Amino acid sequence: MCTLEKRGRVYLLTLTGADEHRLNPTLLDAVRSALARVRSEAASSDGGAALVIAAEGKFFSNGFDLDWARASPSLHPGLMTAALRRTLADLLSLPMPTVAAVTGHVSAAGCFLALSHDYVVMRADRGFLYMSEVDIGLPIVESFMALMRAKIPDPRTRRDVLLWGKKMTAVEAEARGIVDRAVVGAREAVEAAIAMGEELAARNWDGEAYASIRKGLFKDVCRGLGLKEASDEEEEAAASAAAAKLPSSKL
Amino acid sequence: MCSLERRDRVFLLSITGDGQHRLNADTIASLRSSLAEIRSQVAAAPGGYSLVTAAEGRFFSNGFDLAWANEAGTPSGSRQRLSSLVALFKPVVADLLSLPMPTVAAVTGHAAAAGFMLAISHDYAVMRGDRGVLYMSELDIGLSFPDYFMSLMRAKIADPRTLRDVTLRAKKFSAAEAEARGIVDSVHGSAAETVEAALRLAKELAARNWDGGVYASIRMGAFPEACAAVGLAEHDDEEKRKTFVSKL
Fold first, then answer.
1. Can you list the alpha helix ranges (DSSP code H) found in A65-169?
2. Which of A5, A141, B108, B168 maximizes the CB count within 10 A of its CB?
3. Which residue range forms the structural domain that includes residue B24?
């Protein structure tokens, strides 16, 4: 399903196997377990960290496991979307910068997974980014739509991705602001993502502050994914804790 | 008024006549009935379709019929008439934002105020390059915008500087400038060439054979604030889940 390793300050989560990495509760639970380990290891270590998610084979992820959904149409679709919502909530609340290394085709729900990272590096020489829903005739539930709106603010790009079902190469996706970098080669894309992660981790940011800022940036998306907003008391407590760390001359 | 023709899977709605195509109760009713006709034809024979909206003459549409509003004779009477036009036009925008097929505006001439809104209510806009401007004239005539105009502009013109130039500078955009700033998708020569380009695009879109209901659902999810502003309720997740399951 997935492996987790540490490279310097970067946690590298890899979706293993040469398959399409279709998102079903089994794979998503494996990803969530790995993310929970990342969280607990980072909490007990000093200094900054970052997460990179990559995948083996020709696909980053080709979306929901529709075969699994068909096996029990009244039950499985709901379980699948709930599992993805929880996974995206984990990523959006992760107390460190996150980088998706899109090493192959990424489509539909796979795009939700990739775009819920802070940064996206995508393989340039092969693979497409493709929101296939319009072509297959599948509606997109609001919580995932909110993510797409937040990450693709340009109306024309949003239309081309969602309403035209454009298959974009990494180069086009970078030009249109959907991904941050297009890198030739799968291995090179992963190395670039790790280098980016290392650079971000070296900033030694406070993980909770980072996560809090990210959640504020994507407030509506987080609410839709069921992430609780910090209560006023929590925010005040965090502010006093931060103020206590400032040198006295700055107060 | 409007004429509606069908060219295979593409509906061509034309605002007819040589005038400014000012929007009043009659022209609006004509638009709405054409859009209703389109809906009923596709409900009877599901498949991939698309719409092109074009206009004859030098104007796409120069906005609301202010002359009619002013014929009220008093300032409050004029204001009331203008309010009625604002209210009547809102469902046209709603019809377009919920239309179960891709939509292309062939901006064949000047598009100002509500005429500009008519254009950007479409998914795609192609514009003639040899003449014509896009222009939100309201500031120049001392009017503000209805809420739904602002929501629609915010949805379709996301760049803050462009939005400011459109609304707070009352800038007249040539087709080339409109394309450069992301307001229209492409520029063509004459009006006829623009309509041809729109029909080509529409044909390509119709050939994708999209499920119209899902297309409209995704469109409304992509621009929810604009849709809410014109009274469109988003399909809730339960409806979407049912559609999802039916497609498996």
1. 66-71, 76-92, 109-115, 133-136, 142-151, 155-162
2. B108
3. 2-207
